[in-house]
């Protein structure tokens, strides 16, 4: 007997228990941190983040943050 559950992933920040709503990916070649909608599958160099953490994210020095806005109320 298996329960069918919607995909739910947690924010990857330590001590944060919110549901992830965005996936952050480090693109090393371009030194970009890309924040987009939650990815369907987990990929290497990507982290799931809740909305507040995605919004508050800052890039490491020398990197830039690229935000995709699939929804009008992304911010
Ligand atoms: Zn969080």
UniProtKB/TrEMBL annotation:
Protein name as annotated: DUF3499-like protein
InterPro entries to which the protein is assigned, alphabetical: DUF3499 (IPR021888)
Species this protein is from: Pontimonas salivibrio
